[in-house]
Amino acid sequence: MSGSSRPSNHLLQTLPAAEFELLRPHLATVDLAKHAVLFEAGAPIGDVYLPHGGMVSMIVSFAEGETVEVAKIGRDSIVGGAAALHDGPSLADAVVIVPGVASVIAADRLRALIEGSGVLRDLLVRHQQALSVQAQQAATCHASHTVESRLSRWLLHARELCDGEPLPLTQESLAQLLGVRRNAVSIVAHAFQEAGLIRYSRGNIEIIDLEGLQKVACECYTAVRTQCGRLLKTG
Known about the structure:
This protein has 10 helices and 9 strands. By secondary structure, it is an alpha+beta fold. The protein folds into 2 domains: 3-142, Sandwich (Jelly Rolls); 146-217, Winged helix-like DNA-binding domain superfamily/Winged helix DNA-binding domain (Arc Repressor Mutant, subunit A, Orthogonal Bundle), CATH 1.10.10.10. The strands form 3 sheets. The protein has a 4-stranded antiparallel β-sheet. A 3-stranded antiparallel β-sheet has the order 1-7-3. α5 (118-144) runs antiparallel to α10, α6 packs across α9 and α7 (171-178) packs across α8 (182-194). The longest helix has 27 residues, at 118-144.
């Protein structure tokens, strides 16, 4: 089966034919509904998702009730892949932020399949390393950079995952993902709109000036993009 006839997920697209044929009989297709929680922190991961579109955020919650996104996943990667490499609970909530469609496979089935395929295991390891890069950079960014640069970085990455389509996000949702107060996002989003960087209306955000937004973003955007591109051979 050729790459073009496979689901439009990077991991599935880049698998050699023999390894994809191992997976194919065990893949089902599901809708990713907005706000759906695919699995929760501290709970076992029953199913692994390979998005064809949309976006899933990995979110960590704190005792004080605050939340922050540590990674985001679209058709570039896999949600819950760690469950196939080691049998343990999730370290974060997996929440659908932008709806889409995904291939899904039971975690225990994928775990059994990679025992017989070094190629599949290696690819899963590299995808998990890429998510770790996101999480590590997110922690640094959260501690070191302004809301303006962090929001710019977030929007740029989300735009890539969603093919430049408007992002169906409220300011409240963005605040929760960035781990900041809503009024901070409101002030920055208004400034971005006044500067012609974005268009925000009715819960949708559209990037108007890509180059301008890139100038505002912190270096984390390029750092993550470069490292993940190297790991996943996309850049």
